[in-house]
Amino acid sequence: MEQHVKIKKVLNNNVIIAEHPLHKEVVLIGKGIGFNRKKDDDISFSKADKTFLLSNEKEKEQYVNLLPYIDEGLIDFMNDVLVHVEMRMGQELNQHIHVALTDHLAFAINRAKQGMEFSNPFLLEIESLYPKEYQIAMEVVTMIYDQMGIQFPEGEVGFIALHIHSAVTDKTLREINRHNQLITKLVSLVEDTMGLEIDKNSVDYHRLVQHLHRAIDRVHQDEAVGDEIKLAKMLKEEYPVCYNLAWKLIKVMQKQLNKPVDESEAIYLTIHLQRLTHKS
Fold first, then answer.
1. Cα–Cα distances in Å, from 265 out to 171, 252, 260?
2. Per-residue pLDDT reduced to its tens digit, 197-206
3. Model pTM?
């Protein structure tokens, strides 16, 4: 049986807000869905290409305020982008991406048209940490070029990848960026202590970054990696410089995250550091 809902607000020709029996309000997106419609009209759910909830009042307000400044063709295109991202990630996205990514891409398109370029200092880290999201972000950038003839700078791929990662993990961009900044700080500490410049394209660098990322996640989840006293003793004796540096990194993490880091992290960090510095 076809489900009908009542229109609460027509935002533009392609977007309406409707009353939903279970979810109070739902946003319906579809080509021409709002054309010649008015408040309290009944409309079939099947008319929409995409439906999403904006249960967060602040996000809903942001989305409603954003739409008048956005070309209606972009709203339609955003629908294609999000359907593509969802299909490629193989999972539903958190609804906040509708607001966050629409907002980001609208301004990024304007920046690109004006020849402004935003640098992304975490580009290599983002590619290393979120390879799938990064690949899909590259596909989104290609879609934008094919549709609008606008060439995004490489830094934008990283920003889009972060939005995708945020939508699949329910982490805020602020939280993700804070972790990336901490990882960058830890890598700089390794370079300064060892007096070397790490090849950011090397496999060992990617392994170190991913390990640090997982270590930060473990700290938040209060997980331990296991107690290996004999191995720790051997590594301390064999690789004292790397072992001491591992503890330096742990102290920085503890200070920044304001949580204790499991001692056994030092073992795994020492192995990564030894592998990295031995090859550099």
1. 24, 13, 11
2. 888 888 888 8
3. 0.69
